[in-house]
TrEMBL record:
<dbReference type="InterPro" id="IPR036412">
    <property type="entry name" value="HAD-like_sf"/>
</dbReference>
<dbReference type="InterPro" id="IPR006439">
    <property type="entry name" value="HAD-SF_hydro_IA"/>
</dbReference>
<protein>
    <submittedName>
        <fullName>HAD family hydrolase</fullName>
        <ecNumber>3.1.3.-</ecNumber>
    </submittedName>
</protein>
<dbReference type="Pfam" id="PF00702">
    <property type="entry name" value="Hydrolase"/>
</dbReference>
<dbReference type="GO" id="GO:0016787">
    <property type="term" value="F:hydrolase activity"/>
</dbReference>
<dbReference type="InterPro" id="IPR023214">
    <property type="entry name" value="HAD_sf"/>
</dbReference>
<keyword id="KW-0378">Hydrolase</keyword>
Amino acid sequence: MRIKGVLFDFSGTLFRIEPVGTWLRAVLDERGTAVERREFAAYAEGLTLAGALPGGPSPRRIPPELAEVWADRDRSADLHRRAYTGLARQVDLPDPGLYDALYERHMSPAAWQPYPDAAQVLAGLRSAGTAVGVVSNIGWDLRPVFRAHGLDELVDTYVLSFEEGVQKPDPRLFATACARLGLDPAETVMVGDDRVADAGAAAVGCEVRFVDHLPVAERPTGLRSLALVPHAPKAPGSARGVTPRGR
């Protein structure tokens, strides 16, 4: 198959969110809220267990009162905010304003770091004439993150769940991305880190390839290893893929 288009997930695939401790410290410092070292460690651990940082560790449990909101969190900006601030409120923080401030922080470009090979792979695809789309389950506009890191000009279209009212693995999200790129799904690869959500692309005929959701320093060549760019040498470590249905 000649690849004419590549769709990428955002969090855990092209970018990685900052660690929980860094996230919390940035907000406390910005608000001038001082806490003792032991208290800080307890707050950070509590937020980690609660899964309060979008793109960070998953919640250990979903409180019953948040179950419905959590299930549909990526369908709208309101549901996304309610889900994650609700999880954060499971931790008794010293300032009630911290819950919304933490949510706002995670949407800032400073909170995100691209994987080391993201720019190289995206630039290689652009040079090869391969169309690029970003398909993300998300509750806010991630375009400023791409612009701040100089990657926006390498993306042809963004298909975001909160704008479409549909979340992965619903195949409609992937079909929309292919249509906007003017491509047949059979000529398109979906790259993601979620073996359930991103695998939904196979239902429309895309090949699906996976990377591992690891800290930036631990995954320097994960995207390069997928050999998406024509004639580019494949990095060590073979990719695991999903074959489209009926192919």
